[in-house]
Amino acid sequence: MISALVDHIRRYVPLDEQEAAVLEQFIEVREVKKKAFLLREGEVCKANYFMIKGFCRSYFMTEKDTEHTHLFAIENWWITDYSSLERKTPSMFNIQAQEPSTLGVLHRDKQDELFMAIPQLERYFRSVLEMALAAAHMRIKYIYSQSGHERYIHFSTSFPDFVQRIPQYMLASYLGFTPEFLSKIRAGKIS
Amino acid sequence: MISALVDHIRRYVPLDEQEAAVLEQFIEVREVKKKAFLLREGEVCKANYFMIKGFCRSYFMTEKDTEHTHLFAIENWWITDYSSLERKTPSMFNIQAQEPSTLGVLHRDKQDELFMAIPQLERYFRSVLEMALAAAHMRIKYIYSQSGHERYIHFSTSFPDFVQRIPQYMLASYLGFTPEFLSKIRAGKIS
DNA sequence: CGGTCTCTTGACGGAGTTCAAAGCTAGTGG
DNA sequence: CCACTAGCTTTGAACTCCGTCAAGAGACCG
């Protein structure tokens, strides 16, 4: 049931069969429909979500009522708002399923107990955080050093199949420009 | 000697006197001159640096030979390239002292041994990473939702004293625009 | 005190936005 | 299973924020 998660953990730290069984006690497997919210702006985030199937995105709204996609999470990624989760403060982000999805849910109020039971998960989540941080830093680097057109080319060649699954307005806001501009890029009207 | 670091750790996890003494064995205290490099592009990052005094920045170069400041680290922040540090891959970033600085250096090849000696440091660094990730996400949020002028106002009201310590061209590249534009903002020539 | 690094100022140019309107697609209910 | 509607995408014209270039004025360090 949570074998995708067990496999993922084993890429980073050892986890024997008995520990995997303990882990299963702590992870709720949840099926959600398309457009279901895992977190809404203003709420305190209650859990960390592991994508088993489908994909989610985190986004926020500006004053002008425009959405900005903050990050995508596909299979084998965790998604949450760590800031809200750990400090129990209201989140500024929405997390929403974009396809019918299957999630492994680690509730915040069970997390400490889980880490006591399986201490090497501290290290596993340290690795997960390091990857998320590296991804965020790469994101900033690309925003600063590439044009909109270049970011689109970079993203669509890096994730050719994923691009098919995302509405364009969502990708545009992720890459930092408008849907109109993305449409013109795709039509070849931009250099 | 490393009391600033011990105090910082104690904000997140318990650390008794004996453990603090053990920690001191693992942390090299290093004084560096202004403009000293802790990491250069193309090198593998060898350590994680805790700022005791002074400040550093991480930056990268684009093809057009322009610098982009990636992040600043002031007193009580850690700075490194986690991606290079953990995966032992060449870094894309430079880390440089911007003032004469005092650092606590945790070498990568001693890190695992330190975590074995003081296991709660795994949790401490998890917290440090969570804060770094939250900061990176806030950064992305501001880049996407505010104009250059707004980002400058936001930064300079959030860190009024720090702004005095940074050359303007460095702040400009951190905020994502040119030094010329920052100069015009400060002259009041931008709405 | 001389040279290099940093900041300022202005004219011009361009990448990307905004607005509006029309075409298209996909989900939903009958 | 079709029709209808809401949401998504395309297109074009006008506009704007900010970049580029260039030249000069400080400011700091050896």
Hey, which two chains have the biggest interface? A-B, 31 and 31 residues
Helix-strand topology string of chain A: HHEEEEEEHEEHHHHHH
CATH hierarchy: architecture of the domain at 3-118 in chain A: Sandwich
Number of helices of chain A: 9
Residue windows where pLDDT falls under 50 for at least 5 positions of chain A: none
- CATH class of the domain at 3-118 in chain A equals Mainly Beta
Shape category of chain A: globular
Q: Can you describe what's shown?
A:
The structure is a homodimer of 191-residue chains. In chain A, strands 1-8-3-6 form a four-stranded antiparallel beta sheet. Chain A is of the alpha+beta class and 191 residues long. Chain A has nine helices and eight strands. The model of chain A has no long low-confidence stretch (mean pLDDT 94). Chains A and B meet through strand 5, helix 3 and helix 5 of A and strand 5, helix 3 and helix 5 of B. Chain A binds a DNA duplex (30 and 30 nucleotides) through residues 147-149, 167-169, 177-184, 186-187, 189-191.
